[in-house]
Amino acid sequence: MGGRKRHLVVDCLGLALAVAVTAASVQDRDAAMPLLERLRTMYFSIRLVWADGGYAGRLVDWAAEKCRLTLEIVKRTDDTTGFVVLPRRWVVERRAD
Prior knowledge:
The protein is of the alpha+beta class. The protein has helices spanning 28-42, 58-67, 89-93; strands at residues 4-10, 16-23, 48-52, 70-74. The chain has one domain (4-93). A two-stranded antiparallel sheet has the order 1-2. It has a two-stranded parallel ribbon with strand order 3-4. Pfam families: DDE_Tnp_1.
């Protein structure tokens, strides 16, 4: 049985700006493209987006070229063990469903 993923773009207060729901089989980077395009259309003044490590790779260059967004990836360091609060990551994770 398939699952689903939620992809959220929130502001600094954790308020939702754009949302996409995809099948669990869809790669995060692939789901982010239309989401970032929608974000750019709705909120033209946004220039910087912090994202989870699952969105790293070619999406960073694509966002810069196509959407004129700086996509900064926030990820754990390789030597980190256990639970660690990552900078900026807590904003979306504290969002109540």
